Every structure is written in structure tokens, then in C-alpha cells.
Amino acid sequence: MHEAKHFLFGKTAIVTGAGRGIGRAIARRFAVHGANVIITSRTADQLDETKRLIERGGGGGRVFAQTADVSNAGDVEKLIEDSHAIFERVDVLVNNAGVAPLAMIEEMEPEMFDHILSTNVRTVYLCTRAVWPIMREQGGGAIVNIASLAAFDPFPGFTAYGAAKAFVVAYTKSLAREGQPFGIRVHGVAPGAVETGMLRGAFPTFPSEKALDADDIAAMVEAVLSPAYRHSTGQTVPVMK
Ligand code: NAP
User: Can you give the pTM of this predicted structure?
Assistant: First the structure.
């Protein structure tokens, strides 16, 4: 019997923050389904490891790894230009890169505040803006923004992080309106606690049985990109255990 190709087969997807954690899981999942993946983060050896895992996992798509600080406009422009030159289209952008240092308000130095906003908010704006004309000209695309349950119910110590992720939720909604005339869908995924270095950095004693796996988030990202969601845009889906 003829088996239909997966909807991600042959698509080109950019995943930011793919050197480890959730971004790595998303990139691996895309690749297994035959997508071409562009992976980026600041740490070259972590990206190399993601690339190696993808190549070992099969799927048949190509993988292109480029280091970039996605809070830097020049790095983002170069990343998108180089990716477009190689693959000639960008079907999917996953804005996943983020940081979540925990700091009560009196310990929150201005530099840390700026870093949290820059990494969780500015990155999403810069990457979206860079892929937008490509998606518009090719007749559509999909953007998935990784928010957090902290956008709705933040812990103490997450003033800046929770508010930054609430920005991502509102931005997802607003951007979706702008994308509708061009066939560009925008989705949000808001994870609860996920077993990654980020979780352990903020909450070393969080019970592991209550934490999601990074691939649980990758599965939800795949779900919102699926044809079942083709008439849905602007919503942020919570993922919790
Ligand atoms: P992680 O393990 O710390 O991974 C974060 C990734 O983002 C790394 O590859 C990191 O690489 C990259 N990154 C950070 N700043 C960057 C920058 N300026 N430019 C490029 N890449 C950058 O974190 P995670 O747990 O996988 O989190 C991924 C996303 O999920 C984040 O947006 C986070 O807020 C969200 N989230 C996580 C949890 C959780 O419990 N883990 C819960 C809710 C939401 P480099 O440092 O090498 O650049």
C-alpha cells in the first residue's frame, strides 16, 4: 500500500536555540519526518552534537548548522540570508531560544532584566521580521513561538521572564492577524516544567516525575503545524503534566 508522505517531508524549518533542550528535540523530530532543518544557537559544539544526532536519526533531509546570537540583528539577517540561499524557502520558523534566570526583584540587576527581555522577546521579533518577506513572497509559512506557562502563572522570581513570555503570547495573537492575508500561520506553545538544563538551573530540586520531556514539547509543535491546524492561528497551547 502507498504510504502518504508526512506533512513536514521536504519542508524547510529553522529552529532557534537548537543546541540543547527543547530546541534540539524539535529539530530532531522535524528531521526524522524528512524536513530540512536549519539549527542555530551560540555554542558551536552543542550545535555540532545536534547535527550529529539528526544525521544519525535518518529522515533524509539536509541539516545546516550556523552559530548565531539571535538577539543580534546582524547575526539574524546573516542566518536567514544564508539559509534562504541554500534551501530557497523557509516554511517553518520556531522561535525557541530563551533564558530563564530566577531572581527576586531586589536581586534583579538592570543587566539581567535587559538580558531576559532581549533573549525572550527581541529574538522573536528579529527572527520573525527576517523570515516574513520570504514567507510572504513564497505564499505562506508557519511560525511557532515557544512561550511558557509562566506567562499565565509565574513563580516568584519570574517577574521579567513571566512578563516576557506574556509578550510572546500577545505577539503571537497580533502577528497572526498580520499573517492571515499572506497565508502565514502563527502558533504559540506554552510548556510547563520540561526536563532540560534551563529547568535545573532555575529549580534544581523540581521533582523529575512532574517534568515533561523535551520531546513532549516537540510533539506539540509538530501537532500545531499539522494540516488539522491549518485554519487556526494566533492561539497559544499550554502543555502541562
Ligand atoms: P535550554 O536547555 O537552556 O536551551 C536554550 C537554547 O537556547 C540553547 O540552545 C541556547 O544555546 C539557546 N540560546 C539562548 N540564548 C540564545 C541567543 N541569544 N541566541 C541563540 N541561541 C540562544 O532551555 P530549554 O529548556 O530547552 O528552553 C527552550 C525554550 O522553552 C525557551 O524559550 C524557554 O523559555 C522555554 N520553556 C522552557 C521550560 C522548561 O521547563 N525547560 C518551560 C517553559 C518554557 P546557547 O546558550 O549556546 O546560545
Answer: 0.98
